[in-house]
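During the reporting period the student researcher (J.K.) took over the structure-prediction task from the postdoctoral fellow and processed the backlog of single-chain submissions. One of the processed entries is reproduced below for the supervisory committee.
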Amino acid sequence: MEQELLDYDVSKMKNFCFNGEFMARVVKVIDGDTIKVLFKCFDQFVLNKIRFARINTPEKDSKNNVEKENAYKATEFLDSLLKDKIITFKTDKQDSFGRMLAEVYLNDKNINDLMLNEKYAVKYVKHKVSKKM
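J.K. obtained the following structure tokens:
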């Protein structure tokens, strides 16, 4: 086993990614399209970040004051909605920062769509939604 690990060509590997539907507790709202969650997988509690699939919100560190203000509004809205709540998320891939890309649900309501409908987010085509989601 040890030699196999040493010999294996890691350039052929993809990063590990959770795949499926999970129940989680939102422990932190990072910004309008990213949250940190606690969930159980393989009988272990896991703390990980979720990047909402298909949407993008303004950046909190923007030099544009209007964009920065809108970023904080989106974050506050999401925080009031999700902080310490139990959610369900569906994921099957990661973004370039290692965050799980996911569709997020609160009481069967799609929060990705809610952020779009409430005008806190815009569509983000870089994250293609899997047909499984």
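The committee noted the following: The first helix runs from residue 2 to 7.
J.K. will present the remaining backlog at the next meeting.
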